[in-house]
Amino acid sequence: MSEAEATPKTGKRVLLANPRGYCAGVDRAVQTVEEALKLYGAPIYVRKQIVHNKHVVQTLEAQGAIFVEENEEVPEGATVIFSAHGVAPEVHEQARARSLKAIDATCPLVTKVHHEARRFAADDYDILLIGHEGHEEVIGTAGEAPAHIQLVDGPEDVENVTVRDPEKVVWLSQTTLSVDETLETVARLKKRLPLLQSPPSDDICYATSNRQHVVKEIAAECDVVIVVGSRNSSNSVRLVEVALDAGARAGHLVDFAHEIEDAWLTGADTVGVTSGASVPDELVQQVLAHLAERGFADVQEITTADERLTFSLPQELKRDMKAAAAAARG
Ligand code: SF4
Questions:
Q1: What's the CA-to-centroid distance between 85 and ligand 1, angstroms?
Q2: Is 245 exposed, middle or buried (0-12, 13-18, 19+ CB in 10 A)?
């Protein structure tokens, strides 16, 4: 049977976004836990969800990772990994006080924002941190310079901003925001503070921007866009919003294929599919299989960027891996 015969023409199709799924920071964080488990053995403690994805967390738990909310839940002297979202300096201090062996899996692009915060605080700037209140990354970044940083949670929050010196103000941002909404927030801030400085380079990371960009490209053609990702994943939630803003008739966030409701597909011809930066591609493949069973077997991948960035594992882990390899060689 030819391929054309194997896939009957139904007029139904899937537009599959590329780039989607794992970014370099998530890949590194997940590998950090896996390598630590191999090297030190279970259990390995992880402060907060290593990345915001249910499936990833459950898979690592099955391998022997124990997820905790705070350092005080980790037995003294044990190994703890800090998540990709970053931590405030006081979290490192707490770990030292409990003699924990800390491995920091903070994404280097989040660390870059921490450096910016420290640098502008040292120059006595007021720092306007655009981000979502309560998000772990924002808590970590704000903890670098609490006396200098105030949170701006979206365009509506701009009117609440007060600064000491309007000539010495800079904005920074969470890495996983909506690009368009952040531009709007900055535009409003600049109306109030014309001398507001911008970060030295974009804080919204390449992975967030690329995933939003490709979704914008496909959204207008889609009757529904399905984003694979967890509810506490900021960049995944943003993808649904971006899809709707860019013209998708409907948008839904699912952790797993079985959460897709048949009613979402009723009357649909084109379904867009993408995934957040913390989502392994096997979950997307399961969504594609689920859609194929419902007549959406024609999958067209739309590519708008080629991502090749990778990050090396945290220094402290690499050092121990090297030592273990040397010991094994005798
Ligand atoms: S989404 Fe961006 S900042 Fe967050 S872990 Fe991935 S690369 Fe790093």
A1: 8
A2: middle
Ligand 1 atom at minimal distance to the Cα of residue 26: 5
pLDDT tens for 25-68 read 999 999 999 999 999 999 999 999 999 999 999 999 999 999 99
**DSSP H/E element including 127:** strand 126-130
Measured distance CA(287)–CA(130) in Å, rounded: 33
Q: What's the CA-to-centroid distance between 17 and ligand 1, angstroms?
A: 18
- With a CB cutoff of 8 Å and minimum separation 6, the contacts of 308 are none
Q: How far apart are the first and last CA of the chain?
A: 58
Mutate to test the pocket of ligand 1, among 32, 48, 110 (most ligand atoms within 8 A of CB): 110
| 313-328 pLDDT per residue, tens | 999 999 999 999 999 9
Sheet of 149-152, strand order: 149-152, 126-130, 169-173
Q: What does the block give as tokens for 233?
A: 């994943």
Ligand 1 pocket, CB under 6 A: 23-26, 84, 107, 109-110, 175-176, 205, 207-208, 235, 277
Q: State the closest ligand 1 atom to the C-alpha of 277, by its place in the atom list counted from 1.
A: 1
Instruction: Considering only CA atoms, give the Rg of the chain.
Output: 22
SS3 150: strand
Q: For residues 72 and 204, what is the distance between their CA atoms, to the nearest angstrom?
A: 32
pLDDT of residue 49: 96
Ligand 1 mean position, distance from CA 108 (Å): 8
Mean pLDDT, rounded, for 115-133:
98
Using the mean position of ligand 1's atoms as its centre, give its distance from the Cα of residue 107 in Å. Answer: 6
Nearest-CA residue for ligand 1 atom 7 is: 25
DSSP for residue 71? G
